[in-house]
Specification:
The complex is a heterodimer of chains A (461) and B (364). Chain A is an alpha/beta fold. Helix content of chain A is 52%, strand content 9%. Chain A has a five-stranded parallel beta sheet, sandwiched between helices. Chain A has a three-stranded mixed beta sheet with strand order 1-2-3, covered by helices on one side. In chain A, helix 9 links the parallel strand 6 and strand 7. Chain B has 364 residues and is an alpha+beta fold. Chain B folds into three domains: 113 residues, Roll (DNA Polymerase III, Chain A, domain 2), CATH 3.10.150; 116 residues, DNA Polymerase III, subunit A, domain 2 (DNA Polymerase III, Chain A, domain 2, Roll), CATH 3.10.150; 115 residues, DNA Polymerase III, Chain A, domain 2, CATH 3.10.150.10. Helix content of chain B is 20%, strand content 45%. In chain B, a hairpin with a 2-residue loop joins strand 26 and strand 27. The N and C termini of chain B lie far apart (67 Å). The chains are: A alpha/beta (461), B alpha+beta (364). Chains A and B meet through helix 2, helix 3 and helix 8 of A and loops of B.
Chain lengths: 461, 364
């Protein structure tokens, strides 16, 4: 039953009348079970409470009820399980179930009660409630993973089990899988969601061996309704832990409990991952999270700025989104840097501030080389590599060649002689001229700007 | 209140009663006190933690009636330090003076009317149980109850009648203990917190014939001699454990309990890192039972004992559960029976017909 207003006001007065110990002990765990015009039934934890309330506090309660306009009511106390002081509902309908199979080193359980109440707080360790689906920005790179996670959050254990999400650093893997955990907890109170990084898993496993608490350890993980393991790649090479995880995996999978795993590589590319684990990871669904596209990055920035109660101009957002192209964590870092900078100097974050702050800083992914830049540019303009490297001076070849030179300069910071060499020119002055020309034209030529932006995006994607 | 009481009697009663007040986690300070009052020319001591209440009455020479509560720990420790002899208790407002010839002290008490009332049972079932039988049965069963508060139903011990007999049973879902207590025509089904029964075992005196049990659907009272223990009942449906106990077995080995215990203990030494996992092989041809355990770092062990065997088989168990069951069984011979690797193992003995232990296997 819902909170009863009259009873609440009676409790309020009692709290002021009796000592705190008395109030906490006798009244904290009471609730109104039923009330109509002539009677009121109060639920209490057990017979000890009933006896005490009936014999010691009833006159006081009656008086207070009368004060609240319930003078003629008959008052009764009844023991009621949901008012147990431990706040844990009892298992009324424990069914006898023999589990089909149980993993090694675990005791087989005779009963698996469905209503087994849980210590929700200890089972939500590691979950950060900041990470929700609402705060996740969906873009082309991650919509597949997002959809899969949404489906799982609705019906954990039935679809896509296990779910294996992989992708580079700072692309939102942790956010997504934590969002599943939070959503499951929100949908069904008392669900046991266990979140751990694989490193934590290893550490706890080692501790369990050391302190001979293997059963506790296994119990914690194997009783989970949803098990989320982050950064699975770190389990590579740790054989015993892999074995333990393998058994945990089997136990949960067999009981139709949801398993979600994230890693920076697909299972096939994790070295020294045991074959039986690999094949199991590939059992359910594997999705990757790609780098966010430009629009997604802008949306993320806007969203983060809103969280800080700051409105960013579109040019600023676009500038930042271009600055950091591959990693959302860095993107957030750049934004935080900007906001801190502005706050300290009391500036509004406009384009001049941003360029001043980030103008010198260029992100240059390690894996990008000159050849890729040239190839990308050629591909973008639909000409062949041979053509762009050839001595031809046709306009539709010269233009891409100049852009390539500009990009080699702006993105890879190559020297002019090196740039000339990359494009098969002998004279570095050609390179100087080309870079300068494009730089100048960029200021007023929007079509050129578009081209450069698109090539850059492809380069960083 | 003014009275005289012997140190021996008061000390014994405080030992029985005060403990539950000393380990009390309730917010109400008075629950850490023991209630001392005069009842019909006797002295009554009570303590409660709002799940269990214990009261013991002792003989005393009462001059004036009265009641007070005093801190249980201080009272118990003080009285136990006193030399044996006659103590004089006198109450002055809320100050209790306790004195002998040499020792004189005053303990500040709290008025007795603030002490919670101990529930009384007016109607309901009544049963007289021989003390020896009750004590033994509880000792042989209570250990199997779970201490995991998240599944309250398994923290209880079930007293249940079936086919005219009263059974005591407990399980933590990994192992189960059952014992036939006595024959009765009454229909009983009580789920009593194991912690309360452990407390009962602690206070059961030696020199009494029987225990009176009174119960309604919320509480049960055990009355033995001058001691009364009241506990709440667990309000939940106990799983139908009888279904789990197999009646037919593919493999049975009967052997001396001592020997079985020894080889299990030896094997458990090598099973420490594997959560007590030992593998028991029953061989009909060799007519023996052999136990193997492996510690990947330390080494391994195999020991065997001769046995009467029917059917060959192998099963992996937690050695601790097996040792618990073997020690609780307490007979000369024991029969160890099972059906394959995944079904429950059962320990019984012809010498103790009403006793059954069940251990769930580990899967290897």
């Amino acid at each position: 039953m819902e909170e009863d207003a009259v009873w609440q006001s009676v409790l309020g007065e009692i709290e002021l009348t009796v000592s705190r110990g008395n109030f906490v002990t006798w009244f904290k765990n009471t609730q109104v079970l039923r009330r109509d015009n002539s009677s009121m039934i109060i639920g209490v934890p057990n017979i000890f409470y009933k006896q005490q309330l009936e014999s010691k506090f009833k006159p006081m309660i009656m008086e207070l009820l009368a004060k609240n306009g319930l003078g003629e009511i008959s008052l009764e106390f009844k023991t009621h399980t949901s008012t147990m002081p431990t706040k844990r509902p009892t298992n009324d309908d424990t069914e006898v179930v023999i589990l089909s199979e149980s993993p090694k080193k675990t005791n087989r359980e005779m009963f698996s009660g469905n209503g087994a109440p849980s210590l929700t707080h200890s089972y939500r360790q590691g979950l950060n409630d900041r990470y929700t689906f609402d705060s996740f920005i969906v873009g082309s790179g991650n919509e597949m993973a997002y959809a899969a996670c949404q489906a799982i959050a609705q019906n954990p254990g039935t679809k896509y089990n296990p779910l294996f999400i992989y992708g580079g650093v700072g692309l939102g893997k942790t956010h997504l899988i934590q969002a599943v955990g939070n959503a499951v907890l929100a949908n069904k109170k008392g669900s046991k969601v266990v979140y751990a990084t694989s490193e934590q898993f290893v550490q706890e496993f080692l501790d369990a061996i050391r302190y001979k608490k293997i059963t506790d350890f296994a119990g914690h993980y194997r009783n989970a309704d949803v098990l989320i393991v982050d950064d699975m790649q770190f389990i590579a090479g740790k054989e015993k832990t892999q074995e333990e995880f393998f058994h945990t995996f089997n136990a949960l999978h067999q009981a139709n409990k949801q398993i979600i795993i994230s890693s920076d590589k697909p299972p096939k590319s994790i070295p020294t991952l045991e074959e039986r684990l690999r094949s199991r990871f590939e059992w359910g669904m594997i999705v990757d999270i790609g780098a966010p596209d430009f629009e997604t990055r802008c949306a993320i920035l806007q969203n983060k700025a809103t969280q800080h109660n700051i409105v960013l101009d579109q040019p600023v957002v676009e500038f930042l989104a271009n600055q950091v192209q591959t990693n959302i964590r860095e993107l957030e870092g750049a934004l935080n840097q900007l906001l801190a900078f502005c706050e300290m100097r009391n500036l509004t974050p406009d384009l001049s501030v941003v360029t001043g702050l980030f103008g010198t800083h260029r992100s240059r992914p390690r894996h990008m080389n000159a050849k890729q830049v040239v190839e990308r540019t050629a591909k973008h303009f639909q000409i062949s590599i041979e053509e762009i490297l050839s001595p031809k001076r046709d306009k539709d070849i010269v233009f891409p060649r100049q852009i390539a030179m500009y990009l080699l300069r702006s993105e890879l910071h190559l020297s002019f002689p090196k740039i000339a060499q990359e494009l098969g020119r002998k004279d570095h002055t050609t390179a100087i001229h080309s870079v300068e020309k494009i730089e100048k034209e960029l200021h007023f030529d929007n079509i050129l700007k578009e081209h450069v932006k698109e090539i850059k995006e492809k380069l960083y994607a | 209140m003014k009275l005289q009481v012997t140190q021996e009697n008061l000390n014994k009663a405080l030992n029985n009663v005060a403990r539950i007040a000393m380990v009390n986690k309730n917010a109400l300070p008075i629950l850490n006190n023991v209630l001392i009052r005069t009842v019909d020319n006797r002295l009554s001591l009570s303590a409660t933690n709002l799940e269990i209440a214990i009261t013991e009455k002792i003989g005393s020479k009462v001059q004036t009636e009265g009641a007070i509560t005093v801190p249980a720990r201080l009272m118990q420790e003080y009285v136990s330090s006193l030399p044996s002899g006659i103590l004089e208790l006198e109450l002055d407002e809320h100050k209790l003076h306790i004195s002998t010839e040499q020792y004189k002290s005053t303990i500040n008490g709290v008025f007795a009317d603030e002490f919670p009332l101990v529930p009384e049972i007016t109607k309901g079932l009544q049963l007289k149980i021989p003390l020896k039988d009750l004590k033994k049965s509880l000792q042989q069963v209570v250990f199997a109850a779970s201490s995991d508060e998240t599944r309250p139903v398994l923290t209880g011990v079930l007293l249940n009648t079936q086919d005219g007999s009263l059974f005591v049973a407990a399980t933590d879902s990994y192992r189960l203990a059952e014992k036939k207590l006595l024959k009765t025509a009454q229909d009983i089904s009580l789920l009593i917190p194991a912690s309360a029964l452990q407390e009962l075992l602690r206070v059961l005196p030696e020199n009494t014939e029987s225990v009176e049990m009174h119960a309604d659907n919320q509480q049960v009272l055990f009355k033995v001699g001058d001691i009364e223990l009241v506990t709440r009942l667990i309000d939940a449906t106990y799983p139908d454990y009888k279904k789990l106990i197999p009646t037919k077995f593919s493999t049975t080995a009967t052997l001396a309990r001592d020997e079985f215990t020894t080889i299990t203990k030896v094997a458990s030494l090598f099973a420490r890192e594997s959560a007590g996992s030992i593998t028991i092989k029953v061989d009909e041809g060799a007519k023996n039972v052999s136990i193997t355990s492996i510690a990947s770092q330390l080494g391994e062990n195999t020991s065997s004992a001769d046995a009467d065997v029917s059917g060959t088989g192998e099963v992996t168990l937690n050695s601790r559960y097996l040792l618990d069951a073997l020690s609780a069984l307490g007979t000369k011979e024991v029969s160890f029976s099972f059906n394959g690797k995944l079904e429950p193992c059962v320990l019984t003995s012809k010498e103790a017909p009403g006793q059954t232990y069940l251990v769930m296997p580990l899967k290897s």
